[in-house]
Amino acid sequence: EIVLTQSPGTLSLSPGERATLSCRASQSVSSSYLAWYQQKPGQAPSLLIYGASSRATGIPHRFSGSGSGTDFTLTISRLEPEDFAVYYCQQYDSSPVTFGQGTKLEIK
Amino acid sequence: EVQLLESGGGLVQPGGSLRLSCAASGFTFSSYAMSWVRQAPGKGLEWVSAISGSGGSTYYADSVKGLFTISRDNSKNTLYLQMNRLRAEDTAVYYCAKGITAQSGWFDPWGQGTLVTVSS
């Protein structure tokens, strides 16, 4: 199965700053079959990005996804207070689908 | 509005059984694959099982194969997960999620989750 490794484990930033989260796959994820989710404490995950770079319905433009092959990035251009949460990447190129271990974005 | 509402979680002894349900609304249930994804306390996300829209194809993580059974009743817009021979490591919040296909795709949306605790 494809192992996804997210870095950093924790990212401490201030509102207004730019956040860059990384997701690296143990083998190539073809057709950019990669998604990103946001999870706030006590809530279910919610979809942010699919197809590596397509924003889900209602997701603000400050969220963007990029990458291909084995290296993918989620960028939040200017952090809002509500963006501090845990972020997970997921690959759906190969069965079983797998998730990264998550990156916690915390307020500095 | 698409909504998923899980139920059936609770405290169960090791070796016991539990059946989770997920009631769906706001979309044509039979047209979509559905999955169960779990999250152990303080841990990340683990895909557990998926079923095609018709119910004719099912898939399981190796960790639950032979122990859990996924099913659906399209007449009731409900997804199920029968969990047998439960172990402590099955303790988690179980989410149902609407998928794309049973073997691939992203999950959107997710239910609010139901907590399963396996303990004596």
Order of strands side by side in the largest beta sheet of chain B? 2-10-9-4-5-6
Rg of chain B from C-alpha positions? 13 Å
Mean pLDDT of chain B: 97
SSE ordering of chain B: EEEEEEEEEE
Distance between the termini of chain A: 35 Å
**How helical, in percent, are the residues of chain B?**
under 10%
Number of E-state strands of chain B: 10
Q: Give the strand content of chain A.
A: over 45%
SSE order of chain A: EEEEEEEEEE
Mean pLDDT of chain A equals 97
For the sheet with most strands of chain A, the description reads: 7 strands, mixed
Q: Mind summarizing the main beta sheet of chain B?
A: 6 strands, mixed
Sheet/helix structural class of chain B: mainly beta
Distance between the termini of chain B: 40 Å
Q: How is the secondary structure organized here?
A:
The complex is a heterodimer of chains A (108) and B (120).
Chain A: E1 4-7, E2 10-13, E3 19-29, E4 34-39, E5 46-50, E6 54-55, E7 63-76, E8 86-91, E9 98-99, E10 103-107
Parallel strand pairs in A: 2-10
Antiparallel strand pairs in A: 1-3, 3-7, 4-5, 4-8, 5-6, 8-9, 8-10
Chain B: E1 3-7, E2 10-12, E3 18-25, E4 34-39, E5 45-51, E6 58-60, E7 68-73, E8 78-83, E9 92-98, E10 114-118
